[in-house]
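User: structure tokens for this one?
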Amino acid sequence: MHNYADLILWVYIVLLFVGGLVGYLKAGSKISLIMSASFAAILILCSKGMIFQRSAADLVLVILLVFFAVRLTKSKKFMPNGMMAVLTLAALLLRHLNF
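Assistant:
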């Protein structure tokens, strides 16, 4: 199970970082780049078991889900916060499905 859960997490990490990079390139948002890189790094360390237990990644994903959901309700625009909320929820759920 860990291999599949780790793969899902790594795909999410890449999407999270790319999203922050796009935010920086399109809107000049340095905070998007910094925060996406920071959370990606935390998730990488969780995945490797270097700073927390592997399950701590789920807590980080829940925090990100709440963040993106709050931003979506404030902006009422699906992109980028709605998309990231959907991706975060999908990653969280897929990590716990047994295939």
